[in-house]
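Recap slide: DUF998 domain-containing protein, sequence and predicted structure.
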Amino acid sequence: MSSAITHARAGADVRRLGLACAISGVLMLGVSVFTVFPPDGVPDDQWSYPQTPSQLLAISLVLAVAHALSVGGFIGARRLAVAGGGRASRVGFTGAVAGLIALGFCELLSGLIAEEPLDSGVAAVVGTLFGLSSLLFAAGAIIAGIGVIRAGRWPGWGRWLVLATGVVIVVLVTPANAVGDPVFRWVSLALWSVLFIPLGFQVARGLRPRS
């Protein structure tokens, strides 16, 4: 294993990418906390439920920005060559980035259709796009995360974070959305959000020397 790679430090651009990712986690976690106590009187057959349309629009804008910032963690990790230079890892990181960008776009659409009935055609389309974007991100993060672990270039527990962001989508977030239980959904999204904070800081710190 190359010493230069093992001891790689993040340059200024990679540090900024990592910090952007960490900020995204804080923003998403903040949204999760905000939604713990939803307002009363929102129809449960409305797309924005349990939030009011204006609240959902604001939340959607924040989450769209957060997903854009999250991209920094995956671009930064790829620049650090934490998964080596294999084709599979490159495809994985590309898929994860594409999935996050698509999720940001879906958040914007979600805010715009806040008052639509849940059984409307446009709601079905946006819901489907959310599902496909989430799965694209999860697949990419899992492929890239496996590459990170196998490469062994990222010392310590940080090597598991990329994989964890994808696994949580599959194991928790997707089932929570399918079930529709507000508490299950809140917990799963909060756990997913938290992962981006240490991921961002790990990228910003670079590949630390092994002790």
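The mean pLDDT is 90.
The longest helix spans residues 121-151.
(End of recap.)
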